[in-house]
Amino acid sequence: MRFHVEPCGRPLRGEVAIPGDKSIGHRALLFSLLSQTPVRVLGLGDGADNGRSAKAVSALGGRIEKDGPALVIHGTGLDGMRVPASRIDCGNSGTTIRLLCGLLAGQRFQATLFGDESLSKRPMRRVIEPLAKMGATITGEGQGADVTPPLVIGPATGPLRALDYTLPMASAQVKTAILLAGLYADGATTVREPGPSRDHSERMLAHLGAPLTVTGRATTIDTRGWNRQLAGEGFEVPSDPSSSAFLIAAALLAGADEVRLPNICTNPTRTGFLDAIQQMGGTVAFEDERHAGPEPVATLVVRGPAQPLRAIEIAEDLAVRSIDELPILAVLAARASGTTVVRNAEELRVKESDRIATTCAMLRSFGIACEARPDGFTVEGRPDRPLDPGHVHADGDHRIAMAGAVAGLVASGETIIDDADNVATSYPGFAAALTQLGATIRVV
Ligand code: S3P
Questions:
Q1: The pTM is what?
Q2: I want to staple 368 with a disulfide (CB 3.0 to 4.6 A). Which of 126, 146, 186, 334 is the partner?
Q3: Is 49 assigned a catalytic role?
Q4: Parallel, antiparallel, or unpaired for β 70-74 and 39-42?
């Protein structure tokens, strides 16, 4: 799939309903499998990655039923999972495979997980190592220095061992895998992390009655005296802030008569992108703030002509809280005055692509000077004239494809984005949403 993007000559305008948050969607599906009672999930996104988690739930004995706009998930409880009939295909989804590792570590059966070409290269040692310390058996392929899918998990021969583990990197996927395995361990399992990775698992597991406590950056599951039952009526999945970032950036760069994005998750572990924009001098208004179950949400609004932006430094906690938004922040940096520096973001190297390399290549194709660093990159902003028309190879990475398309709105001629199929993993309606706001983007 290829995007053809035309320069956008007028301000964007309109209201777009962004699909449900991908991270929360995975958790709503996989955690509901562990529930004793049916769980109603409202607002699940339509991306292929969440679809992988839904299929895994079915393969493990859960039943997913449509009920009007909602899905009702009839889980198996902690101990009623079915032996999957075949290998579980996780597609492009790192969250599906890593969360399943934690979920399956304590099961009395064996299961095999695999994925597409990109997922088959992603590092799994980070999740295998702590789970092995808990007594799980997980084997994978040896590619380079790490362990990669396919992964064969289990069978566990008894309860797992409780673990006190300090994560070497801030990772919500690894944290969640350990907490899920902790439900199958005797005693108190604690995960400590060096940075504020997204905390949806903590909020949602507590919502289902898991024996979970959070103290600073340490989260504990203590199964002592617990009745081993999770239950809850439902989850409302708020709209995805990571998908909204592309439309917010488009509205800031092209200008907005008024662009409104309702119901966006504003969990502080996900608002690094919005905080970075504010530091760059951009304005995004929060309206209609409320809670959707355990998550805060708001309508995000961009108004006014193209906003002048200035370069900033993105490092440490801000880098963790905007990790998935760094490619689109790089596009904003390309239009900002000064040199933007991104540091402490080495995790970008092991996302759906090497996002330090692919972000730099994407910006260079628009004529922007961008330098890769081991743990990030620098971008020389060019606010005084349009970007050159780009020709981006997205390298199968959804966020690079969408970031490139947004950059194309402020280029001096037609931009082409190749290898954009994987936009469907997180935001199949992306091109339609940009079109709805008044941009011209053709999908061929
Ligand atoms: C995610 C966690 C992050 C993020 C990914 C989704 C999650 O990855 O980049 O897109 O849903 O837990 P890490 O856990 O590797 O930081």
A1: 0.98
A2: 334
A3: no
A4: antiparallel
